[in-house]
Amino acid sequence: MLLNLKCVLFLAVTYFGLSNTKIINEVKQSIRKFPDGFSFGAATASYQIEGAWNADGKTETIWDHLTHNNPCSVKDCSNGDIAANSYNLFKRDVEMIRELGLDHYRFSLSWTRILPTGFPDKINEAGVQYYNNLINEMIKYNIKPMVTLYHWELPQKLQEMGGWANPHVTDWFADYARVVFEQFGDRVKYWITINEPYQICNAGYGSTTKAPQLNLKGIADYMCAKNLLVAHAKTYHIYNNEFKPKYGGVVGMSMSAQWYEPESEEQVEAANEAMHFGIGQYAHPIFAKEGDFPQIMKEKVSAKSAAQGYYRSRLVEFTEEEVNMIRGSSDFIGLNHYTTYLSYRSNVTLEEKQDSDVTSYQPNSWPGSASEWLKQIPWGLHKLLTYVKHNYDNPMVIITENGFSTLSGLEDDDRISFYREYLNAMLDAIEEGCNVAGYTAWSLMDNFEWLEGYTVRFGLYEVDFTTANRTRTPRKSAFVYKEIVRSRALDPIYEPNTKVMTIDEGH
Ligand code: GBH
Fold first, then answer.
1. Where are the transmembrane segments (predicted)?
2. FRET label pair with 442: which of 155, 254, 316, 426, CA 20 to 30 Å apart?
3. How many whole angstroms separate alpha carbon 95 and alpha carbon 502?
4. Which residues pair with 124 in a beta bridge?
């Protein structure tokens, strides 16, 4: 849409000889404002940026374990041992946040930095100090911390006891959360319990594309899903009962929220099924009126399990008490949205380990990025937000991740167009009544991109991973995002001066 506008203007100048003033006026009319009080931020995650993997008492997590024991399952055989070295460079990170003029910064905590045994019997002072230093540095400059308790780094010892497949994990996690609320709750008002359950369970337990690479599809992923939702709900209620009265913060979860579009009008039901097996698996139990896993999931998994010879559904059911505990257990829904797929009905055989009868894909003609899976389809965000409004009773939404990958380099016009187009689509949804309160760019800086290692870059700031001091340099997109945040508006043709990055007054 924004690009079209540019084209129209270009044609207007070329063929109709419109005056400059007229063009400038038309652009001004097309500048869209963000609502008052809208919060802009950027995000990172502990393993992806901190490094210092065994410093000051921190113990091994499942990502340390994976990268050290099976290094070349990461594309460039790299790891997060040093990453962007934010454990030592956090002051520079906060300086970057000030340069961008952000309202909030989303980062995550490393469980074993705080609790080296995984349990609350020993609180590691040095780890707590690190996060206190980071949080205090942010508070000093009026930047709201948005803290994720779990962005994929389970303590390795807890994994050896089954991790998210062991029902006791619900208490392990809730205990950890309580320690965190006690330590940081006075200053942190935005809490995300868990980042992307779909990736944790479906990729980590049902496949090999995330730690712990368990690859038990249709079994371990469902155990994980159930336990994770119970852990989340326990944590929500702990905060709500014991901490919210004095601190008044909010608690939610960040969902992996890709959009599934019907390939044709006949495929609406198929695409809907893909949504239920995707975001619905985790959002429906919390946000839908009736709670629990989506009906279609329960029916399909139960029928396929029976036909496959299992004595009970592979989808571990919730008790009624659990359904009630989980339903409503979030103050907002966090959406991590990147891309869109087309879906159609397909006859999946019982031998294929897939419980939905849908195939999804991305046409080659869709504009791509440096990541195979990431195609730039801004209208998918508009449709996703509309879906969330209709299906989950218009909850408060925070976009907790949205971003684009490139190779290294500072001239990132593709990323700029991605951000502009997606923010524009978000504004369409807001105008139609979607309750979106904040937007968080992924990522503040380049980082360890899981199994992609350092081969693709998501940062507004480039990080030089070849030098010991991990120099951070703003990309062109950083200047453009800064202007969006400063002006609280989307100017489709703003060209930044990328020579000097400064900190504006009041930041
Ligand atoms: C986010 O997940 C993560 O929260 C963040 O840590 C990460 O850095 C960011 O994405 C960028 O990747 O290749 O077909 O297996 C986003 C959701 C969904 C993105 C799965 C990668 C891989 C699809 N992810 N996808 S495939």
1. none
2. 155
3. 10
4. none
C-alpha of residue 80 to centroid of ligand 1, in Å: 17
Residue 164 and residue 200 in contact, taking contact as beta carbons nearer than 8 Å: yes
Summarize the confidence of residues 2-26 as an average pLDDT: 53
pLDDT of 395 > 60? The answer is yes
- Phi, psi angle pair for 137, to nearest 5°: -65, -35
Which residue out of 199, 210, 445 has the highest number of ligand 1 atoms within 8 Å of its CB and is therefore the one to mutate?
Answer: 199
Length of the chain: 507
Q: Determine the pLDDT at residue 29.
A: 63
The identity of residue 298, as a single letter, is K
Which among 5, 83, 20 has a CA at the least distance from the CA of 48? 83
For the chain, domains (ranges, CATH) are: 5-490 (3.20.20.80)
Task: Report pLDDT for 30.
Answer: 86
The answer to whether 59 and 112 have CB atoms below 8 angstroms apart is: yes
Q: Provide the token pair at 464.
A: 């030089």
CA–CA gap between residue 344 and residue 396 (Å, rounded): 31
The rounded distance, in Å, linking the Cα atoms of 145 and 137 is: 10
The pLDDT value recorded for residue 3 is: 45
Residue that the structure tokens 């989340």 belong to: 232
- pLDDT tens string 207-240: 999 999 999 999 999 999 999 999 999 999 999 9
Band the pLDDT of 7: cuts 50, 70, 90: very low
In the sheet with 259-262, reading across from the earlier edge strand, the strands are: 259-262, 340-345, 358-361
Query: Which residue puts its alpha carbon closest to atom 25 of ligand 1?
Result: 373
Instruction: Name the pairing type of β-strands 358-361 and 340-345.
Output: antiparallel
Helix (H) or strand (E) holding 231: helix 220-238
Give CA–CA dist 178/484, Å, rounded: 37
Assess whether the C-beta atom of 373 lies below 6 angstroms from ligand 1: yes
pLDDT at 11: 46
